[in-house]
Design goal:
By secondary structure, this protein is mainly β. 9% of the residues lie in helices and 21% in strands. It binds 2-acetamido-2-deoxy-beta-D-glucopyranose (NAG) (2 copies).
Length: 160
């Protein structure tokens, strides 16, 4: 019964600060702090994330719109998984200079986000079963000299 009461308390606290429900652990292979917020029904990016977060899993939530401004307090962020949300837009006005990997598969994107603020990107997954890209801007990947792995499968692209 005490366990149940504690759990109830925790879940009440969690609705106020969803970030507290994210499980953090060192990813020993990548030697980065990995914060797992997947599958929590989030509609917003949690604000209380550790500032040493290197890998952030926000997949399988209900995020409809995300801005890179939400991650400006995470200067060590190198991987961001936003797959399996409801993203119609990703606003990238605020740069993420170290971000190497961005996973956007299984969302509802109709346009490719501007990628110029992500100069370190090497791995971009837009594998879009459920995304709706029909065309890519001519200079979409300009300046992304490190990009090695680009997955654009399952889109509605008419030309590239
Ligand atoms: C993240 O958490 C979810 C839900 O608890 C779990 O199913 C998943 O395996 C975790 N992912 C990783 C990479 O640890
Ligand atoms: C994180 O916050 C702590 C305490 O506020 C600070 O000492 C540390 O330098 C910060 N680390 C980063 C990477 O910003």
């Amino acid at each position: 019964a005490e366990d149940k009461a504690l759990l109830a308390l925790l879940s009440v606290a969690g609705t106020e600060i969803p970030g507290e429900l994210c499980h953090s652990e060192m990813n020993l292979i990548k030697d980065r702090l990995q914060v797992n917020c997947s599958g929590l029904g989030l509609t917003e990016v949690p604000s209380a994330l550790p500032n040493t977060t290197g890998i952030l899993l926000l997949n399988t939530n209900h995020l409809a719109s995300v801005s890179t401004a939400s991650f400006q307090h995470l200067p060590e962020l190198i991987e961001l998984d936003l797959s399996g949300n409801r993203l119609g837009a990703l606003h990238t006005g605020a740069p993420l200079p170290l971000l190497q990997e961005l996973i956007l598969s299984h969302n509802a994107l109709a346009v490719l986000p501007t990628l110029q603020g992500l100069p370190a990107l090497t791995h971009l997954e837009l594998n879009l079963r459920g995304n709706r890209l029909r065309m890519l801007p001519e200079k979409a990947f300009e300046g992304l000299t490190g990009l090695k792995d680009l997955d654009l499968s399952d889109n509605a692209l008419e030309e590239l």
